[in-house]
Design goal:
The strands form 2 sheets. Strands 1-2 form a two-stranded parallel sheet. A two-stranded antiparallel sheet has the order 3-4. Helix content is about 20%, strand content about 20%. It has helices spanning about 10-20, 45-50; strands at about 1-5, 25-30, 65-70, 75-80. The relative contact order is 0.14. With about 80 residues, it is of the alpha+beta class. The chain is extended, with a radius of gyration of 16 Å. The protein has one domain.
Length: about 80
């Protein structure tokens, strides 16, 4: 089976991996080469439960201890 996955974020990447593990021939399309998401490409901690490969200690990891969020109307919230 041939499968195309559009979007190389955490969901698309994981989908491509699972499909490939089950024998599909997968091509993963990401239109923004070298693009970082506004959140810095981060993955919420709860995602590790659904994507155990993210807990691999060989992968580069950083923890965000605080964040400043802006709404489209320029309202600000601080998260610590």
């Amino acid at each position: 089976m041939k499968v195309a996955v559009v979007g190389g974020g955490p969901g698309g990447s994981r989908s491509a991996e699972l499909l490939s593990d089950r024998g599909a021939r997968v091509i993963l399309y990401e239109c923004r080469r070298g693009w970082e998401k506004p959140c810095g490409g981060g993955v919420p901690e709860r995602s590790v439960d659904f994507c155990p490969f993210l807990a691999n200690p060989d992968l580069p990891q950083r923890s965000a201890l605080r964040a400043r969020l802006y709404s489209p109307r320029n309202r600000e919230a601080n998260a610590t």
